[in-house]
Amino acid sequence: MTERTEELISLARRWLAAFNGKDLEELLALYQDDAVHVSPKLRERQPETKGEIRGVAALRAWWKDALERLPGLHYEETRLTAMEDRVFMEYLRHNPGDPDLLVAEVLEVGTGGLIRASRVYHG
Predict the structure, then answer these.
(1) Measuring CA to CA, how many Å separate 27 from each of 13, 16, 80, 114?
(2) Which residues of 67-86 are buried (b: 16+ CB within 10 A; e: fewer)?
């Protein structure tokens, strides 16, 4: 494994740990100020966004709502694959009362090792 691959895998694991630990500040610290986030859940809950938000303030509002609304939400890592400037995360989304959901998420990493874009796909 190259040093770059290790850095990207480490970033993905920090992302998962921050999310599962409900540490919103740590999660947001992984993103560039102007980062873009795309998600089918976002499109479903906030159709006016067309599934896309931009900037740390929008990310903060989105995840704060999710963490408060779904206190039992937890992501279980199943696979991480890194190359060049992105890491592909596969995880199981566990939330009490909901069926488990297989999720793929791509984190595009910019200069400085911060996430410039994240895209979520449900399977």
Answers:
(1) 11, 9, 18, 11
(2) eeeeeebebeeeebebeeeb
Measured distance CA(45)–CA(40) in Å, rounded: 9
All residues at 6 or more sequence positions from 117 whose CB lies less than 8 Å from its CB, including other chains: 35, 36, 37, 38, 106, 107, 108
As a whole number of angstroms, the distance between CA 94 and CA 73 comes to: 6
Which residues neighbour 55 within 8 Å (Cβ) at sequence distance 6 or greater?
Answer: 33, 34, 35
pLDDT for res 1? 79
Nearest to 54 by CA among 67, 38, 36, 71: 36
For each of the domains in the chain, give its residue range(s) and CATH number, in order of start.
3-122 (3.10.450.50)
What confidence score (pLDDT) does residue 123 get?
66
Q: What are phi and psi of 55, to 5 degrees?
A: 90, 155
Q: Which parts of the chain have pLDDT scores under 50?
A: none
